[in-house]
Amino acid sequence: MLAKFLSKAISSKCLLVRGYASKPYTTQELVDVSNRYLLGVYKKPNIILHKGMGALVEDLDGNSYLDLTAGIAVTSLGHGNTDIAVALMEQAQKVISTSNLFHNENAGPLAEKLVNSTAYPGNPNEPWAYQAFFTNSGAEANEAALKFARKTGFQSGQDNKYGITAFQNAFHGRTLGALSVTPKKGLPRGV
Ligand SMILES: Cc1ncc(COP(=O)(O)O)c(C=O)c1O
């Protein structure tokens, strides 16, 4: 029942960007308002992506595209996925966020699944991972990886074994730690 309602809502106009606005916006108006009020981090094409199904997305003007970016590799289960929508809605109706100051009923079991999934097929009882670390963004994940690597270097007992080697043209995110291993070309002074 819930799944049916959600899939109807997703394919109808119920979940439009317009839900946030007091009047319907045209594509150009939305582009203009975004450029005016959102801090610009990337140059974006003048389309407004509005809904999708699987690997296809559609803009406000009804043009369809094959989504080859997948949210920069974070929407691997596709757009308009009813199972995801139902899970999000069910959780939002219970408790929306507990921060990382409290346990909740999902994070532990998910970490357990992830850790156990790193076991080699011939050796199911010996995953190579020990624990999972959940973050909100790629930059934080890379930031954590840098810290883990540096800590491991310090704990190795060998002096100064905490430098990080980075490739030219690499990108790791916009936190200061991630930027510290990002070649500076093109970054504004002071960043
Ligand atoms: C290769 C790479 N690393 C890290 C990041 C940072 O991810 P996020 O934007 O989620 O912080 C990005 C995002 O553009 C990326 O493309």
From TrEMBL:
Enzyme class label: transferase
Superkingdom of the source species: Eukaryota
Keyword terms, alphabetized: Aminotransferase, Transferase
Enzyme nomenclature, EC number: 2.6.1.11
Full protein name: Acetylornithine aminotransferase
The species this protein was found in: Entomophthora muscae
